[in-house]
Amino acid sequence: MKKVISFLFNPWWKPLAFFAITFLLFFINPFIPYETTLNITLLLFFLGLLLIFISVIILLINKKWKHAFINFMAFMLGIFFIPILSLYVFFYLQNMPDNYANNLEIPKNIEIEKPKNENFSPTLKDTVYTFDKRICDFNIHNGMQPGIYSYNVLLGNIEKGTIYLKAFEITHNDPLSAESLRQRSSIVVENHSNSLKNFYITDYFTIYEGDWGYPYAARFEVWFKPENRTERKLTEKNYIIEGWQR
Questions:
Q1: Which of 195, 243, 199 is nearest to 222 (CA)?
Q2: CA-CA distance, 206 to 178, in Å (whole number)?
Q3: Which residue in 47, 159, 189, 204 has a CA-CA distance of 20 to 30 Å to 244?
Q4: Which is more confident, 157 or 9?
């Protein structure tokens, strides 16, 4: 144990030097835009802060007041830096490119569509369509930016309940924005007639995986949850989409 303490805290400035290096790493991070690198830097920063704190205690026990004061001031500087660090991490993550779709390939042997370029018009909400063989159809519409979408769905002979979307990247079957997508795409529906009625969301939903300029294939599924019964899938379509660039 003594050897470990000696290795970590002798000479007295060793924890201080380690802590200073962790500060420098934050200036290097923007040139290595990976979340893992940031996580390692944060871990080293807080480890350095802990070592500085322990070194202050050891120096006080050994009555090395001057060195204890220097390390204590470094420790307080680190504490003061934490709110600034929080802002740095926030903006760093917001500006870090999302490489999710960079190496994904769009399969060539599947039926796939592109979202409609025109935004869905809310005036179509009450339009009734002639009934055909399908009891459900839907379309994805482009929103104000790539990665932001809306959708409308045509339903006939359906009891009261809630419909919503699930989305998956096709080649790996990864769920896309699962938590937010269900909430943002939910629509309360009911149509007992033999005609297709148009329902739509009043806002937009966002697919966060990927970045602008990197299209990939996604499977959108329409799910229906009747009142007091289990959910079931109604239909699905494949679309070429992009993720939203934060």
A1: 199
A2: 10
A3: 189
A4: 157
